[in-house]
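Today's session is about reading a structure prediction critically. Students often jump straight to the picture, but the first step is always the sequence itself: look for stretches that repeat, for charged clusters, for runs of hydrophobic residues. Only then move on to the predicted structure, which in these notes is written as discrete structure tokens rather than atom positions. Here is the chain we will use throughout the hour.
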Amino acid sequence: MRLQYSENNQRFYFSFLTRFLCLLFAGLLGINGTVCLAASEEDPEESDFPPGLLAVYQTGQTKIERLDPQVSFNWGSDSPDVRLAAGPFEANWTGLFLVKGDGKHRFHVYLQGDVELLLNGETVLKGSSDQPQWINGKDVELEFGEQEIEVKYKKTGNGAVIKLFWSSERFAIEPITTQLLFRETGRPDLALLERGRLEFKASRCDRCHLSATAETSLPAPSLEKTSTGLSNDWIVQKLTEQSGKHNRMPECQMENQQARDIAAYLQSTSAKKVKLPKLNSKKPKDDRQQGELLVLSLGCLACHVVNDLGRSDLFGGGELSQIGSKRSAQWLLQWMRKPETLNAHHRMPTFSLSGKEQRQLAVYLSELKNVKAG
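Below is the predicted structure for this chain, in token form.
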């Protein structure tokens, strides 16, 4: 079977390439709204090809719609959505799938349940499994461009799992990610609901308020090692001043004395201090310059913000523009060496850094003080 090239490809690729180049130039040049301003402010749902797939979930007579960035779920015995009762359900995803090049391809799914995958109305994979396992489709000849995709799923047992993958003559099996999935028309109403759900979770609203959601938000940073690297003055400032734009800390509106009481309590009840390593920098100026280059080149800016550079989305790592006012160079060095000793529930990625690179990063970051971001 050979799937045909769509007449919409020219429009699709012009839109895709325009957005990609705008994001690329803005990111590489560190531009603050002077280039591709319209692209950066554009609502994705109003673009020619909004990202993600339209999903329809149904349990009994109850049917709901939502936008899913990709098809990669392990629900187990839970409901796929808080608006649906637990138990058997059906799901259907529709949209456009970007094929990166001509040639033979094969689709794969890690599955518990029933699934059928169609491209341009033709079935390219179909299977069923009572336990999570791999199901492989047949080889199919695809042409460069976008294809209409539809995924039909049904939960048939105690658990529900579906994760889509593909492979070709040129690349090994890899996930079908959101960068390959689009829709021809936007749904601002569904996008608004999804943004609200993510904001609710990222702001940890359910930590204080009851919610119908079965999801549990991420915990706030641990206070177990407060006495290691945090001064009373910094805690007081944190509790009494306005939060930064990348900060998820609620506005406590405390009086100065209240904040000092809390700081004293946290320091007195904190677990035993972690012994921090010594940091010997014979050439601090050189270390600072090299540390800055490492921050720009290692991928730190994918999760963090330093002054006008980088990004920190709802679940990002936060702003580092004033991290030196909060943490010492010794603390930062320990964080890069063994973050688990400072926070057992950390989300810091593991980097293969030499001792020299760790020192350079610690020196640079520790000198970021009183620098206003954005």
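Discussion point for the tutorial: Residues 53-186 form a domain with the Toxin - Anthrax Protective Antigen; domain 1 fold (CATH 3.90.182.10).
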